[in-house]
Amino acid sequence: MAAPWEDVLRNEGAIQEAASVAVDAALLEGVLMRTEREPNASDVVNYAPFTLLPSAVPSALFEQAYAVQQDFNLLVDAISQNKEFLEHTLASTIKVDDFTAQLFRIHMQVLKEGLAQSVFLGINRSDYMFDCGVDGTPALKQIEINTIAASFGGLTSRTVAVHGRVLKVLGKSEEASRLLPNNPSKGLALGIAKAWELYGSRSAVVMFLVEEVQRNIFDQRCVENELWNRNIRVIRKRFRDVFEKGSLDDAKRLYMDGQEVAVVYYREGYVPKNYNQQNWEARLLLERSRAVKCPDIATQLAGTKKVQQELSRPGTLERLLPGRTEAIARIRATFAGLYSLDMGEEGDKIAATAIADPDRFVLKPQREGGGNNLYGEELRQVLEKIRDSPERTSYILMDKIKPQPAMNYLLRAHSPLQVSECISELGIFGVYVRQDKEMVMNKAAGHLLRTKAIEHADGGVAAGVAVLDSPYLV
């Protein structure tokens, strides 16, 4: 699966020159992040980390990932509407995981009151790796699906131009012309704009719900700019702003500072540290409102690891997507082995297997945001500690995917230029809009390739481990 620039990797002078061009190109194109030192000011910014060269991706697997995305959109939407499935699937998890339990309580409360929102917007990203099986043939295997705050659709829209420039500098114009155009920020904005339109109030705004620390603001601004270009007003607020200034009228319309809010686009709220008591109250207020939430709380729950594991059980997909035989086959083809750690014989057995052979597995808690999974010796120690405790039900086990590494340079501010053995993860963005029971939009909205050195087991770009990349199809 080699890319056609193995020759370049050995030419130190050419690499030095290309790296210098690459960094300037990234700054010119707006592949930017705020600095760790000043995460809430744009006075000093730097380039977001990225690979010097695009990485080779098998074209058949790339096409497979795109082809299944609309199926995953339908699946996530179906799960979010299936109260019984979520209740049954998360029953053991919510006993031991306070965060999932609190989300679930809000979900049940909102259903009991009656849903005020009639338009539903889903923006997700399904992440895959290329697993090299026993015979070395790569296969597309899903790592997870992110149903809340799926990031880097903006910056990845600007990364292709940087890699195109680098290849030209290295005398590879022909290869540069084969890089695929990619603009997820436009696709995500089209979904938000459609939801805003269906909400039906031209004076209403889109609210980006953002973190206290906003290093990745430029990624969000890319999507924001697409909305401003359509004359849709965008405001940026935090949970605490909602707690202090948010209100609902009698029709459950949401107001912030006197402005009606049509769409709430969450770029935070996916990990426990995002919440204190006030923030939970703010989340409840948002969920009770008529505004289109992206995601609503049921869709966030649909993205939990426990749901992912339950989907791999025989018969589950058939119950959720009745009559969609071909879609089910496409979805199932991407599943890696997933195992429940629920109390009982099945859970006991797989826990014992993983303790005996920890390098075969990944231990995953119910968390988003990267950097949470456990591997190898650490996995074994944690499982030995919790093997007889209900606490183990807050995790799932997954077969460890073994991709074929490739050599590349990872460019990071203030870091030396050195070649690394790397593996990549491909994400496909999905967008759908449903009004009552009618699916109004369902599409794949672009892709994200992230690459990291093989010594880093877990974590994404925001977690400081992976870097932005572009696929070069082979």
Search tags:
19 helices; 474 residues; seven-stranded antiparallel β-sheet; six-stranded mixed β-sheet; alpha+beta; single chain
Strand content: 25-35%
Q: Given the helix and strand composition, which structural class is it?
A: alpha+beta
Number of strands: 21
Mean pLDDT: 94
Strand count, sense and barrel status of the largest sheet are: 7 strands, antiparallel
Low-confidence stretches: none
The best one-word shape is globular
Could you tell me how far the N terminus lies from the C terminus, measured between alpha carbons in angstroms? 7 Å
What is the rounded Rg? 22 Å
Number of helical elements: 19
Q: What portion of residues is helical? A: 25-40%
Please, could you describe this protein's structure?
With 474 residues, this protein is an alpha+beta fold. The chain is built from 19 helices and 21 strands. It has helices at 6-9, 12-29, 59-67, 69-80, 83-90, 93-96, 98-113, 159-169, 173-176, 184-199, 217-228, 239-245, 277-288, 297-302, 305-311, 316-320, 325-332, 345-356, 376-386, and strands at 32-34, 45-47, 50-51, 55-57, 119-132, 138-146, 205-209, 234-237, 246-248, 254-256, 259-266, 292-294, 338-340, 361-365, 374-375, 395-399, 406-411, 419-435, 438-453, 467-469, 471-473. The strands form 5 sheets. Strands 3, 5, 6, 17, 18, 19 and 20 form a 7-stranded antiparallel beta sheet that branches. Strands 7, 8, 9, 10, 11 and 12 form a 6-stranded mixed beta sheet that branches. Helix 2 runs antiparallel to helix 8, helix 10 packs across helix 11 (217-228) and helix 12 (239-245) crosses helix 13. The protein starts with 5 loop residues before the first helix and ends with a strand.
